[in-house]
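USER:
Make up one protein:

ASSISTANT:
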Amino acid sequence: MELSVGISGASGAAYAVRFLQVLDELPQVERVHLVISSNGFTLLKHETSISVSSQNFQIAKIIGRDSSKFRFYDNMNFYSPIASGSYPTEGMVVVPCSTGSLGNIASGTSNNLIQRGAEVALKERRKLILVIRETPLSQIHLENCLRITQAGGVILPAAPGFYHRPAQISDLVDFVVARILDQLRLDHQIGKRWGKE
């Protein structure tokens, strides 16, 4: 499968890093089209000490190894394949998704490639998963979440559970990443499931 992934400027860069690492490990994922906003780059550096930019992008700096699976596009590159519905992908995941990106996607105003990729996923009836990371949520945020859901998208808050008794932060990150993978119907062994040893 081919998948688009956007990293916006919401807090939660660790979710994005782990998600990309797992996608690289899954044999059923053949290609990942990756877009990172300018604030996404800033958050990667601030929260994970990963220093990359559009000019010196290297996937190895993010996932810890080189990989031919990833195709990186500048966030203003509307000529990239994922800006068109004629290019087939399974859909798009924005992780983390800022409420600003949520608002633009919900209103159909594509100011950058992340938002355009999400718009394409909705209009083509492909999977769109927005991993929002904000609290508390205002009425405007909630209404935008509802609009996305009504349009066929999935709002997946970065809200880890605790029933699996996490021992470290990586367990909490894996919980959310596992829920994203479940929504994509990707088989994985990340984290623990309720009712299973």
Summary: Helices lie at 13-25, 38-48, 59-63, 99-107, 113-123, 139-150, 169-183.
